[in-house]
Amino acid sequence: MEQTARTDIPLLRVLIVDDQSMIRGGFEALLNAQDGIEVVGTASDGEGIAAVVEELRPDVVLMDIRMPHVGGLEATRTVLEMPGTPPKIIMLTTFDADEYVFAALRAGASGFLLKDSTPQELVQAVRVVADGESLLAPRVTRALIADFVARPERSLGAEASLSALTERELDVLRLVARGLANREIADALVMAEQTVKTHVSRILGKLRLRDRTQLVVAAYESGLVRPGE
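User: That's the sequence. What structure does it adopt?
Assistant: Structure tokens below.
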């Protein structure tokens, strides 16, 4: 696995895994120019990803889905199965609806971003995911989820009951599923942002899900929210 690494310690550590050198170089230069963000390493594919993550300790990994040798999906599963607290993973794709995106979300990726997104969208994605929120490319979120939930395979449990949730928790979940951030949910439901965070944490615990991205999937699979609403 080809890789390069930096020795200084950034506030927010990012690892870039992509087989295209221009992508790696461009993203590295862009992110290193931001306050509080630094790229601690780059890699050309997912081979040996566990050792790289163990050594560099990134907070966020930008992971290309399609790579030779070891692709992004296998690498994502490897990283998220590591002991301790794994980094957040943003999947990178050149396609509006990539077949591997569905599996990546189920594997626990915190979201995905199109490679032709703007520099501002890339920087915001890193910050949002590092802060514990999920990230789905705005241009394709609804189409992606609509296609995803229409598929016959169900690994998060389409029949899973939401009966353990309170009415307020259901309100929060509906807005999470529509892609609203905590501040937007707080404004919509007239509550403190910290209260929203507490509700989200409780919902995750009750449904035994990993993060907000899986909450989105669960909300659609259970029928709480329907595509196009």
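The CA atoms of residues 65 and 100 lie 7 Å apart.
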